[in-house]
Specification:
Helix-turn-helix domain-containing protein, single chain, alpha+beta, Homeodomain-like_sf, about 45% helix, Endonuclease I-creI
Length: about 180
């Protein structure tokens, strides 16, 4: 990390205390974002301020719950998604085939409707797109998350269960409620 004059550091900290984002402070002063972030961390630590990351998780706050978007996202998660939950990395990933560009758009839209605060990104893979959003609160929204195959997990103390839609009439009913792929 480069050494910066105390006046630059004080100016950066003053801007951050006024609510200016790390990214903007870094661009304004020509300093790497990681340096600005470190200064913010040290400033909070010196003042004894505990950092609590902002959240808009409907399970943890009083924010309204978007049931249709959540239901759609739950179906995507159970079908072609997973959650990575490690000490410093939490994200929901949904994989969508390139043949269904509308599905990719809908997955992104559903993530934003369920939890607007975390960023949503697309990453192109071979034959598919990964729609990804970083926040540890996805595990609040999907308590089914856990190790092993999804269909073999025990959910909230109940017996393991499988959901299968194999009959033509059942698929038609599901399409009526979820909508077709496009």
């Amino acid at each position: 990390m480069n050494d910066y004059s105390p006046s630059i550091r004080h100016h950066a900290v003053a801007l951050m205390r006024q609510g200016v984002a790390n990214r903007d402070v870094a661009e304004l002063l020509g300093i790497p974002r990681r340096t600005v972030g470190w200064w913010r961390h040290q400033d909070r630590q010196q003042r004894g301020e505990l950092f609590v990351p902002p959240t808009d998780c409907p399970s943890c706050t009083s924010r309204a719950f978007n049931h249709p978007a959540y239901s759609y996202l739950l179906g995507l998660y159970l079908g072609d998604g997973h959650i990575v939950s490690k000490p410093k990395q939490h994200h929901l990933s949904i994989f969508c085939a390139d043949a269904w560009p509308g599905l990719i758009d809908e997955a992104e839209t559903a993530m934003r409707k369920v939890m607007p605060l975390p960023s949503v990104q697309r990453r192109q893979k071979n034959g598919c797109a990964e729609v990804k959003s970083y926040t540890k609160h996805w595990t609040c929204m999907f308590p089914q998350h856990g190790p092993g195959k999804k269909h073999g997990r025990v959910a909230r103390g109940s017996d393991p269960f499988n959901i299968s839609v194999a009959r033509r009439a059942s698929v038609a009913l599901m399409d009526k409620h979820v909508g077709p792929k496009y």
